[in-house]
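A protein record in our archive is deliberately plain, so that people and models can read it alike. The record that follows is passed on verbatim for readers who wish to inspect the format.
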Amino acid sequence: MKQFIFIIVLISFIDMFAQLPILSPFAKELGATPALIGIAVGMYSFSNMFGNILAGYWIDKHGPKKVLLAGFFLTGLFLLLYIFVTTPWQLIAVRFLHGLFSGFLVPAAFTVVANSGKEGKQGKSMAVTGVAVGISAIIGPAFGGIIASKYGVNWVFLIIAIVMLVIFILSAFVIPNKTAQITRKIDPSVTTLVALLKSPMLLTSYSGAFSLMFAQGVLAYMLPLQVESLQFGTQYSGILLSTFGITAILIFALPTNRLFDRYQYHNTMMAGMSIIGIALIFLSLSTSLSLLFISMVVYGTGFAFLFPSISAMLVKHTDHGTRGKAFGLFYAFFSLGVVVGSSITGVLAVSFATGFVIAACILFANTVWMLLYFRSKAQVTERME
């Protein structure tokens, strides 16, 4: 069962990562302006937010199986619509539908993983799950870039759609029908979401998720255009994006994953944000393939510290009755980060160097406020003692 959930996480993220090296050039080929390219890249994540939040409610009410099945089936169907896209606005419409229903997948899968993890080992559990994310970050961009350059963009979407529909069929038989045990009544109103947002530790986790995916949104928009402007092949966009995945997966899978439970989650979170910020500064200055690859190794190191830390913090501060909603909000902040990152850089029509610097500043700013918050919290605790 755990192995199959691992595959589900892998496929869910491959769907996202495979788009990274191809969306900006694809939208550009359709005649999109810089602003429309940014909207097209960000639209998937914009609608993904709503899918994440809806999934959170349905997971807590009915369990993850129905949510996963609906997500895989509908995502597979809407992926097929990319084949018929001929204008930028059609692309934006398809991106909306694709993002909405793919938003069901990850919260459901991660809720299952979190509920089955051992108390006090959430960091290691999320790091191991991060291996699936890392593998998808390796396979997805390389697959998208190589297939698009050899056979065309349509084949990327067609192959992923077929895989989604196959996983839908397998999930119907493999995932048990038993729903999660709810220990208290779940409030179906929006006040539950507000209560989750008012929790300082969860808000820290959400801020980390937003920061990570803001950077990812800028990277998804800018890196393929940077590679193109430096006159390297399209396939290098995918290979570069896979490089950060290889780096992250090594840190996730090796004994280094013990670090996530040895140190406080907020410390590894702030370290990850700072490292990604440094990587983005390096990217803004990179003019050769070697420098680009070094920058992506640094980026992958930051990703490896940040991702399991923010996930484990969420698991630590929720229970079975609220975890679905909490993960739904968590991935909504993921999506919001991509939307804001890609849209702002698109609307402002900034250069790739400026875009990377803007993302780095957001990460550094979030690191500073977290550092000040946790330092003041520690001082209050010392006075009480």
Notes: Residues 2-175+188-384 form a domain with the Growth Hormone; Chain: A; fold (CATH 1.20.1250.20). Confidence is low (pLDDT under 50) at residues 179-191.
